[in-house]
Each structure stands twice: as structure tokens, then as C-alpha cells.
Amino acid sequence: MRNKTASSLALLGTALAVPALCQNILNNGGFEYGMMCHNFFQLSSTFVDYAGDYRWRVSTNAHSGSYSGQIICTTSGAPNSDCYRGWITSNHIPITDSSQSYTLSVFTNCATGEVAQLYIPGTVGGDTTVPLTCQGSWAGNTVTFQPGSSQSWFYYEFFYFGQTSLLLDAV
Fold first, then answer.
1. How many CA atoms lie less than 13 Å away from 101 in the CB half-sphere?
2. In angstroms, rounded to a whole number, what is the distance separating the alpha carbons of residues 53 and 81?
3. Does residue 89 sit in helix, strand or coil?
4. Tens of pLDDT along 59-80?
5. What 3-state class would DSSP assign to 99?
């Protein structure tokens, strides 16, 4: 019985520790701890949610640190590729002062001509959507925004509409 109690306490300690790390996405902005604190979605070319050929993984091709996050089309160039849109969503990030402006920066690496976007809903003046630089090498992207006045948290999404891969680092 003692082993079960110890195992249960260890499991509880792990369950309590993980959400604490995700309270601020900047704790894993470089994907050094894997894809923790992020959620993954895709939409197929036939507009079916959660269907398609995108996959999410950690890559060793990093701008800084050892790893980056990657959205990859697994059927790149195939005649029946089903890569319409894949995206990574952050967990909710607490806002301490909704009258304050926030700056979000990310480094991206995607093929020249491909399309990637950063989306932040519920900002002052409407949702914020900005294109991310796809130039075939690492590029810095920055956006400044102010959350809506009634918000106690915000989140962001990185959308990828490409046929190869999008690397994200140093969020």
C-alpha cells in the first residue's frame, strides 16, 4: 500500500507542477521542454477539422537554444497533399494590467513565398492578425498589442498554410 501512496503523491506532484510551468508561456518559448504549453490543430483541404497531413514536433534546427517548434506537412509535394492549415495555440497567459501594451516576438523559418500568420484575438480595436516572415532562413517578427479591457488573459495562435514546414523559436 505504501508504494501506491508514494506513486500517487508523485503523480499528483507532477500534475501540479506542469500547469505552473504553463502559466507563462515564456517558460517554454524556445520549445526546450518540448511542445508543452501549446495545443495543436489542423484543417484539411476538404475543410474537415482535425483531419489533414500536418504534424507537430520539436526540431533541432533552432534559432537559439537547442530546439524549435515545427509544423510540418508530411505529404509535401504529393499530388494528394492534405495540408490546408495547421496551427499551434498557446495556453491562456494571465494579464496583470489590461491597460498595458504587450509585445510578442518570435523567430520563424519557412520557405520563401509560403504563408504563416500570428493571430491574437480580443485585442483593442479588434483581433490582431499579422503575417510572419517566410524567407527560407530565420527571421524575427514582432507585434505590439493591447488586450481588451475586460480580459484577464490572452492567447496567440501561429497559423501555417504551407506545404513544407514552419519552424518557430524564441517566442
1. 7
2. 7
3. strand
4. 888 898 888 888 888 875 656 6
5. coil
